[in-house]
Amino acid sequence: MRPTFVYDGDCAFCSSCAGFIERHIRTPARVEAWQRLDLAALGLTADGCAEAVQWVGADGEVASGPAAIARLLRQASGASGRLLWRPVGTALAARPVLAMAWPAYRWVARNRHRLPGGTPACALPRPLAGDLEP
């Protein structure tokens, strides 16, 4: 099985980022919108995919958010992969950097409808009052 990088295809910002990956990062991974996949076969859920990008490795290992991005970048090939993307992915995967990346990732996810390429349809649903934790 090829590794798969999963993004939200209903979000223009996410789709723009996926397009950047496809144009600029040579990777063995499939870059796919979660809406077009059999999520159960990949061990993913729609809720998880709506919240963060996902990485499903060839071995079935799953990572999400910045950890998924780090996995994708560390798989990059070609000259730009060796010189740029792999080192960035390795740095992002380092425990202290990854810990700092999560709050930034969550901020981007919550505000993706306001970012370049984003649309109101990109906004994550707000939790209902009954869904809030005490």
From TrEMBL:
<dbReference type="InterPro" id="IPR007263">
    <property type="entry name" value="DCC1-like"/>
</dbReference>
<dbReference type="Pfam" id="PF04134">
    <property type="entry name" value="DCC1-like"/>
</dbReference>
<protein>
    <submittedName>
        <fullName>DUF393 domain-containing protein</fullName>
    </submittedName>
</protein>
